[in-house]
Records
---
Amino acid sequence: MNAIILLNALPVFVDIDIETFQMDPAKMEEKINGNTKAVEPVHIAGLSADMDRINKIAKKHNLMVVEDACQSLFTEYKGKKCGSLGDIGCFSFQVSKIIGCGEGGAAIGNDDELMNRCYSFHTLGVETETGSPARRRWMIGAPKYRMNEFEGSVLLPQLDLLEERVNRRTENAEYLTSNLKDIPGILPQKHYEGQGKATYYTYDFRYKKEHFNDVSLDVFEKALNAEGIPTFRQSIFELNKEPVIENTLNSRTFKKIFSKERLKKYREENECPNNAQRCKESIGIWHWALSGTKEDTDNIYNGILKIYENRDKLT
Ligand SMILES: *Cc1c(COP(=O)(O)O)cnc(C)c1O
């Protein structure tokens, strides 16, 4: 969203599928207009979005596909890795991610011309490094997002651990999902056909309080934490309703660029009811809790079961 706003473009939100928590391709087409340039699916929580359908719609409308794979490093979809399924794949190495070096990130792609533009954008807008650096020309006005060698040296050894960790989390997460079937009111994030092994940045599920004596999600989360289960709620607030949206639409720049009618229409159409529901119901378990042994995974299940069995005592 921020990247789009900083280009003085309107970020148009597509609602999610309530069962997979990913952008719903069925809701994508109605959001496309003559000014749409790109679509940005987010592979949320370490699972893949429905990329075949998204790519197909993007192709039909001549849109670039920019994958936000920050939470899905090494997640596979139909035998390929997330971030390699669209035109550009984006990754983050910020501290909470699967591998981290403090701050930093990466963008990948196969189109040299496009990658040269990415390179230029991340390094002050100068040309790609061909020939003498002193002969490089300044092409565009751009920021400096360069990662330094120190960060790289912290990051690189972590790559060696990645495959094994993803394999282990995939195994543990699938085991947890098969156990959780017994507990009513716990609805794990569903996969699309083609989902291979997955990063499980967070193991997300929806919590249906009617099966837990109407105990709120806040209280349920406290109970999980008391059982030693580390949680993260990615979506407490609806992103499309955050103050940044109104602040941006009301800015002088946006009022100059977009007509009153366009901004009015944007406001009217800026509704994502499934995502609103997800914000109320979903919670995740941090990746490191799923990186342990089968016994550790049993402990997560037993903790949730204990809460379910004692739901009458929760307040
Ligand atoms: C972490 C994250 C980002 C941002 O990463 P930064 O490195 O902080 O810019 C973007 N998208 C998703 C889905 C993320 O999880």
---
Amino acid sequence: MQQTHAIPALSREDQKRLDDLYEMIQHEADFFIGYPCNATFDYSPLFGFLSHPINNVGDPYVPSNFHLNTHSFEREVLDVFQKLTHIPEEDAWGYVSCGGTEGNMYGIFLGRELFPEGLVYYSEDTHYSVNKILRCLHVRNIMIKSDPDGRIDLEDLRETIRIHRDVPPIIFANVGTTMKGAVDDLVGIRQILDELAIHQSYIHADAALSGMILPFVDDPQPWDFDAGLDSISISGHKMIGAPIPCGVVLAKKTHVDRIARSIEYVGTMDTTILGSRNAIAPLFLWYAFHTIGLEGYRQRVQYCFEIAEYAIEQLIRIGCRAWRHPNSVTVVFDRPCDAVISRWQLAVQNDIAHVITMPHVTRQQIDRLVSDIAQSKAAANKKEQIYETDHHH
Ligand SMILES: *Cc1c(COP(=O)(O)O)cnc(C)c1O
């Protein structure tokens, strides 16, 4: 496009600040093993799209007056997820979101619109953002205990729903918790609803990371629409990988129809939470599916499991407790000292930490982490010995 207004170049100082920032990020990337964001991607062929104000405002399935959009590619991405999550094709709806958080908000929003008097149940291992979402939506909610491995405690859930049998439950289920990678027992949850003869309910699944793992394993825990979901949220920048946070949310179309409003200003349906929506994110996801492909992700997921097993072996070898759930790439282990946490950007919670063996994580990085932990343990032991010797005198 011809530029009406030329864009002046950056000053030398400003350019240097950008270069320094880039260098810092490249350096830190070498220690990036604590968060579930895949770092192996290259979307440079999409660069040209950054020169246009593309925008996916509105419903991806409805034409709009805003033509600089990527809705057709967005729909193809959603078709892939429709098959991966087994949502019945004729009742499938979704959009590419800003990330898992927005998808979770959407799910709870739909649940509440269906059942305005409903009560949201979620476990104490649920992602921290959900509490804020519940406040934003001003919906009644009750936190349920988790079992030690991070799954929702079915006894506590049953008793709590029983007490509130007169209001429809909106279940917020975890498919891969943030800290421990636990998958809530969806079969057990459905059984509880059946036993209590509850006919009106809604189940949303937060599958931020595991929604792109479980489609590629031989023995997945029940997690998708076959397990009775009404909606699901999956992050795009986690297992798939993207330089801009993104995600997908899928929901049954019959639910979405109840909240749809037609908006003349943009000539489309206002079915999404946000107005203007990122139009390049669908291209990242589309590009990933058309290059790496589903078979490529299957192989990557296998690689991630191998590295996770390797990490567990190596941590146990130096006397750390370390474990993971089946089909999880989240390796939980004893919380190391603060220097190790900061250096390796580890997420921690009370006495545990985790590494998440995403596709970019290598055995060498695990070796270096384990060696850092072993050294810090040795140093701590030495200090203790000196302390004890001092006290003997
Ligand atoms: C990462 C994560 C989220 C938040 O997703 P974003 O894509 O970062 O918004 C929510 N739930 C779980 C279980 C997560 O792991």
